[in-house]
Amino acid sequence: MCELLGMSANVPTDICFSFSGLMPRGGRTGPHKDGWGIAFYEGKGCRTFHDPAPAADSELARLLQRLPIKSRNVISHIRQATHGQVSLENTHPFLRELWGRSWAFAHNGKLPGVKKWPLGFYRPIGTTDSEHAFCWLLDAIRRRFPRPPARRATLWRFILEHVQELNKLGTFNMLMSDGRELFAFCSTHLSWISRRAPFGEAKLVDADMTVDFAELTTPDDVVTVVATRPLTSNEVWTTIPPGSMVVLDRGEVYGLEPGQRGVRRWT
Amino acid sequence: MCELLGMSANVPTDICFSFSGLMPRGGRTGPHKDGWGIAFYEGKGCRTFHDPAPAADSELARLLQRLPIKSRNVISHIRQATHGQVSLENTHPFLRELWGRSWAFAHNGKLPGVKKWPLGFYRPIGTTDSEHAFCWLLDAIRRRFPRPPARRATLWRFILEHVQELNKLGTFNMLMSDGRELFAFCSTHLSWISRRAPFGEAKLVDADMTVDFAELTTPDDVVTVVATRPLTSNEVWTTIPPGSMVVLDRGEVYGLEPGQRGVRRWT
């Protein structure tokens, strides 16, 4: 299994604090020693860092914990290999272009049998079930929507239906983004927290580190973090119900539950 | 204009020395202050670093000058913006997947009018003429070869013919790789050097730095570096004739000239 971390914000925000909470789980406080990766969106651009070495020992990961790269959408992943060897090409997040946008994807879980699902345009570069699932999902989106649909909820519902199909194969906790929205599907474990004024102090579970967000933010900032397990010990995180998906957009949290039409705002 | 740097080697090799020679040109000894990027292949995997800030001042670039990431194929680029604003999505190298492989592409020059050329599957994320040309080229390869052709020279010749078409629009110095071969097309300026036993000392033009490759290599190593302008002052670099392309494969240099069949080895 692996651990996921995502962030969505209404202003470019650095993820140094949450990233510092995740990295020790990559071989020190957690067993996820088989590589790590992170994707930062800046406008339509996306910069990624991938390392097949344990996050807890990585010089690059240390640099990123203090380099304040400001982004409105971030996806990160630390890996404990279950399917596919430990190598750079098997390190999440995976990236592909669709509609002239960068799509980033990270997955926690197992999808036995997914590699038999036929692919069209997108092909995996590595050997993970995760990347195969991502290619299948993007293929489906591309086939159905040669251009982005006019109503965003149309795309959200389509994605939800297809990730639920994938989830039937096994375990499929997922983060995916095109740089605007961040899709977070919970199969077993995924929680979120929204921070906004009045900001308070937060204390990491996995490192001896506390931050006072009031010092780092302005009153209008909205920052939502989503993670496999809560990263802080003194805040209340909301668990996403298994089988459902939230969509983060500029820090706000929206839901689409099966059988319902329209969008529901959770924050 | 911009500067290009590529490396091909028969064993995983770090590019710290050559990269240290290129980075000062990104705003200190050269005017290319509008961002930089680098792609390192490790097997089928590719890790990239992109920064829209000047290379000469970049903390990330400084880390990469001392972090010995070992790779057999590297493409790097420092940018002086001529077309498209300074932003992350306009920072080379650009990446796309074709045939389940990562293709990386960097360009130096201008291609007036290329944005009118129709695109099929691949779409630019940023606004540069370079990324448009890359999408057009990969579209052409994909359409002609749904699967990789059996003979490598068939692909090489197809690529050469198409980059010559692009070159007619303006200036098109290019580095492109799929992680196996590195294609280097010279429109105006591109030179290469192959290093092999007996290895000697090399001295950078742009930084006060000398390296004795004999201390860092084994007798079987073959390492070829290709760059817009020679990076060292005490070695002989070979200029690629304008309008032609060399293909680097495991450090060896091959040529394909128009009108001739087959492959010619230069090293």
Structural Rg of chain A: 17 Å
CATH-defined superfamily of chain A: Aminohydrolase, N-terminal nucleophile (Ntn) domain
CATH classification class of chain A = Alpha Beta
The biggest sheet of chain A, with number of strands, parallel, antiparallel or mixed sense and barrel status, is: 7 strands, antiparallel
Q: How does this structure look, described?
A:
The structure is a homodimer of 267-residue chains. Chain A has 267 residues and is of the alpha+beta class. Chain A has a single domain (3-265), classed as 4-Layer Sandwich (Glutamine Phosphoribosylpyrophosphate, subunit 1, domain 1), CATH 3.60.20. Chain A is built from four helices and 16 strands. A seven-stranded antiparallel sheet of chain A has the order 3-2-4-1-12-9-13, covered by helices on one side. Chain A has a seven-stranded antiparallel sheet with strand order 5-6-7-8-14-15-16, with helices on one face. In chain A, strands 10-11 form a two-stranded antiparallel ribbon. The model of chain A has no long low-confidence stretch (mean pLDDT 92). Chain A binds chain B through residues 42-52, 59-60, 63, 67, 87-91, 95-97, 99-102, 121-126, and chain B through 42-52, 59-60, 63, 67, 87-91, 95-97, 99-102, 121-126.
